[in-house]
Design a protein that fits this description.
Blueprint: H1 5-11, E1 23-28, E2 32-38, H2 58-76, H3 78-81, E3 85-96, E4 105-116, E5 119-128, E6 131-143
Antiparallel strand pairs: 1-2, 2-4, 3-6, 4-5, 5-6
Length: 144
């Protein structure tokens, strides 16, 4: 493990119950990052999504991917981004290929495709047991 939850909290403003990256296993600054997230069965969103057949909401997985991208961005451009907050600009081409159930762990990946004027374009994926379950292109920025 390269970064644990406390390290991640030092880079992102998110906190429980809305911090969805558990650890970072690999990071290549200004290039790509790999992390892990597990959704325990007592996660708050399972109570309503869905009570008799819980599934991780797709938007939560997208948020996990965006947070992972945020770690890559903040770690890669730390000196330029101190004191600035992240902001999601867009999510494009999101595809959900398989549901994620309680207690399943996802390997999440983000690749920085473009960076211009503090606009960051990321290609992201989530895998369960090496099988692609979600992919999306995410654009983010930072606010002063």
């Amino acid at each position: 493990m390269i970064l644990d939850k406390d390290d991640i909290k030092s880079l992102l403003p998110h906190r429980e119950p809305f911090l969805f990256v558990d650890s970072i296993s690999n990071i290549n600054l200004k290039q790509d990052i790999t992390g892990l997230i597990k959704f325990p069965e007592d996660s708050y969103f399972f109570k309503g999504h869905f009570p008799d057949r819980p599934v991780v909401p797709g938007v939560i997985i997208i948020e996990s991917l965006a947070q992972l991208g945020g770690v890559l961005i903040y770690k890669s451009f730390e000196a330029d981004l101190v004191g600035k907050d992240p902001a999601l600009v867009s999510v494009d081409s999101a595809k959900f290929k398989s549901p994620t159930l309680p207690n399943e762990e996802l390997t999440i990946k983000a690749t920085l495709m473009k960076n211009k004027l503090n606009i960051f374009k990321l290609n992201t994926q989530a895998y369960k047991n090496d099988k692609l379950v979600v992919e999306a292109n995410i654009t983010a920025t930072v606010l002063s």
